[in-house]
Amino acid sequence: MPSMLSAEAQRPYEPLPPCTAVGQPSSLDLTQPETVAQRSPVGIAEALGDRESLEQQKREALQAVQHSIVKIEAHSHNMAEAGSVDITGSGYIIAMPNGKPMVMTAAHVVSNKYPIRQTDITFRTTDGQTHKIQKGCHNGEAPPEGQWSSGMPDVAALRPRDELPGSSPLHSATDEEIAAAVHAGQPFFAVGFPANAPVEWGQPIATPQVDVLLPVGQHGADGKMAVISGLERSAKDANDVDELDDAVLPGMSGGVVVVRTPSGEMKVVGMVQAVAQPATAAELSAYGIVDNPETVRAYEPRIAYLGSLTETQEASTSLQAEDEWSAARVIIDLSAVFSKD
User: What is the pLDDT of residues 212-255, one digit of tens each?
Assistant: First the structure.
């Protein structure tokens, strides 16, 4: 009988495999046309609401997820050009049904066009500790330049080698809570680590960035959500501009997006995946943000897409199912060995 240990030992030196439900490929359809939730038309200033309240919610969002967010670091090998590329992204921690932690991120962060071995994927928690992964899987990967679409899966699930003491797994909002938030235009908050985020002296990791996102629609119960980012800068004083842009930036892919539910709890509504070019007034109008072209140009908003909870749950469920299947296989193999004795 071939050694199961040797087969397992070789896996870390290979790229992440696709997520499958015990050998079955993904059947997830992200292109459903039905709009299950869309906000009522509103102007930018009205959509942002009270500035002081918005800033308070941003602080609450960061406080709620600070022990649950991670910075992903991956080393990509380009064998053809004898070079390599360091990739950074964001992620967040959830708990599997058995209570063990799992890190979720965007597939294109850990599955690049150049090979990324599992041993070359690490992540850092906000206490500055670096962690390695034991295994993982991905649904989707970085598409050719300019060919990304909201129908593409883009999620990866990673199993840490340790139990991540001190972490606090996040909980997901229900479909009803998400639909209500989208319909009401309630702000979402994206939290992640921009690639160019500075590290303050004495701090072990860059300070997370919190961005306000205005949800504008979700297509199908399983589909990605469209949101508007980059709407804060024009609302600030002209002399009070942050070093970083206020829109979702490179490095925040895989970052968690949360909303405050009626109960007051911050819950996960999706994952940052892609940001389109700056939106025009006409494009915003189609999404329920109606304002004059001059105002739109002042804000320079962008349309971003979030991975739906269904998309992220399929990846995590697949990895959990693979663990259960592997455990059952070990028991069967051991039973066969002992039965011969």
Answer: 998 888 777 677 888 888 887 765 544 454 444 567 778 899 99
Do 163 and 238 belong together in one domain? no
Render pLDDT for 270-279 as a digit per residue (tens, 0 to 9): 999 877 678 8
pLDDT, tens digit (0-9, with 9 covering 90-100), for 284-328: 888 888 888 888 888 888 888 888 888 888 888 888 776 654 444
Q: DSSP readout, 117-136?
A: BGGGEEEEETTS-EEEEEEE
129-154 pLDDT per residue, tens:
899 999 898 887 566 665 666 677 88
Domain shared by 200 and 325, yes or no: no
State the residue for tokens 């996960």: 268
What's the distance, Cα to Cα, between the start and end of the chain in Å?
15
Instruction: Count the Cβ atoms, other than its own, within 10 Å of residue 297.
Output: 13
> Do 109 and 98 reside in the same domain of the chain?
yes
**Do 196 and 287 fall within a single domain?**
yes
According to DSSP, the residues that pair with 76 across neighbouring strands are: 85
**Structure token digits, residue 39:** 């906000």
Q: What is the DSSP string of 188-242?
A: EEEEE--TTPPPPTT-SSPPPEEEEEEEEEEESTTSPEEEEE--SGGGS-TT---
In a domain, 3, yes or no: no
CB atoms near residue 286 (< 10 Å): 14
d(CA 254, CA 136): 15
Higher pLDDT, 57 or 335: 57
Separation between Cα atoms, residue 170 and residue 172, nearest integer Å: 7
- 28 in a structural domain: no
| CATH code, domain with 140 | 2.40.10
- Is position 155 within any domain? yes
Q: Which residues of 63-97 are buried (b: 16+ CB within 10 A; e: fewer)?
A: ebbebbbbbbbbbbbeeeeeeeeebbbbbbbbebe
Pairing mode, if any, of strands 83-95 and 302-307? unpaired
